Amino acid sequence: MNSEKPNILFITMDQLRYDALGVTSGGRVKTPNIDRLASEGVLCEKFFVHSPMCQPSRASIITGRYPRVTGVRWNWYNLPDDPNLARMLDASGYHTMAIGKMHFTPIEDNHGFKDRVYVEGKMFSDYDEYRTMLGSKGLDGRYFEHVKRWNNVDNFGAEVFPLGDENYVDSFIGARGVEMIESCGDDPFFAWFSFCNPHMPFDPPDSVADMYDPDDMEIPPDFYRSQTMRWPEYRTSSGQQDFSLLTEEKLARIKAYYYATISLVDREIGRLLDTLERKGVLDETVIFFFADHGEMLGNRGVLWKGRMLYDHITHVPLIVRYPREYGGGQIVSDMLQAVDLVPTVLDFCGVDGHIGLQGQSFRRLLAKEQVPWRDWAFAESLNMKMLRTHDWKLIHYGSKPYGELYNLAEDPLELDNLYEDPGWREKRFELTRRLADVLIETEDQLPGPATGTAYEGLSGHHPAQEYGGRDPDTYAYGSRRSPR
Question: What is the pTM for the complete model shown?
Fold first, then answer.
C-alpha cells in the first residue's frame, strides 16, 4: 500500500442512537468491538446528522453538502450526479468499495464505487444480492412472510428472525465484506460497510434474541408524553402508527431486540477488524464508525424516526480510530456534523476539496489542536429547520405560527418548550437570527451543469465528473481559477 495514502473505512449502522453502545451507555449494551474502536481512538460526543431520514442523511454524508443543497430532502429522491467522496477518491487512485445498505437512488447506480455488494436494507430491491442469496436457498418466500408482519401493531415489528443467523442480512453483509477486504490488492482502499441494523423491524435471529432481558430494560421518563397528537408535522412521523397501543411491556421487548441486533452487528465488526489485522493494514486504516440517524425508542411515547429533530434522532455516535495520529480513549466535545466527513477524509488522503463542500476537516481537532470551529449544528426535515448549539436548540417551522425552543443544559430530553415563553423571547429571536445566517451562508457554491457546451449531451452528468471531480473551466479543487 502507498504509505502516504491511508486506507479509509466507513462503518455505519442504520437508526443507531448515541446512547446505544457500550461506551456511551455505561456498559448497558454489549458492543466490545465498537468499544475497542473508542478505547483505541477518539469518541466524538457531539456529532450530528442533517436529517431524520435515511437518504437525505446519507446524501449529505457522501457529498459533504446539506440536504437543502443536494436536493435529497426525503427518501427516494435521486442522489445528484455531482462530485462525491467515492468519485473523488477513485480519481485519486483509491479502490472504492460499498458493501451493504447504501440507500442511494437510482438503486442500480454505482455512484462512484468501483465494487458493490448491493443490499438495500431489510426491504430489498430487484438488484439486491441478499435477496438473490435467499432465493438460491428457497427462502425468499418465507422472508417475505416475515416482512409482511412488520406493521403488526401488536408487536410493532418485534419478533425473532425465522431463518437463522447464517441467513440474517447483517451476517451476510459482514461475510461478503470480509471477502472483499481479503481480496484487496496493494492500492489504498475506501470501503464503506453499511449495516442494516438496528433499523426496524426489531428482529434479531435466535442466536442473540435472548441476549437482553426485557425485565432489565428502562422505560424512558417521557414515555407517556404523547408526540403524535401535536402539530401536523408529527402526525406524519413514524409511519403514522397508533402508538397508543405501545405498552411498557411491548417497549421493553422492543428495546431488548434493538440492543440484540446492535450486538450482532458488533460481532460482524469484530470479524472485519480481525481481517484487517490479519492483512497487516489495521493501523494503516482510518476507521470512521457512525450512524445515519437515531431512533426514538419510546421517548415521547413513539418509535422509529420521521420528521422529528430531537437529539434522539439527530445526535449519533462518531468514533475515529487511527493510531498513527491519535492516542486511544480520547473524547472530542466540539460540534461536528455529517458534512464534515468528506473534508476530513480528503484531508487524510491528501486530496483537495471543491468549492461546493460545506463542511470542515476535523482532523486537527481530533489531535486536540486549537482550531477555529463553529458552535452549532444544523438539521432539516422538509419545512422544519433545526439549529442546535451546545446548550440550546431551536426548531423552526417556516411560516407556521409555532416552534420549539429548548434549554438543553437544564432540559436534555427536550420536554419543556420555551418557544412561547416571554421570558425567553430574546433567546428565541437570537437563535432565529443565527438560523437565518446559517441558511444564507450555506447556499450552494457549486456551479451547475454547463449548458450550450460540449457537456450538453451528458444527460445530467456534472462536467466536473469528467475530470475526476475537477471542472476544467470553472473551478479547481480548493479555489476558483483566474479568468481567462
Answer: 0.89
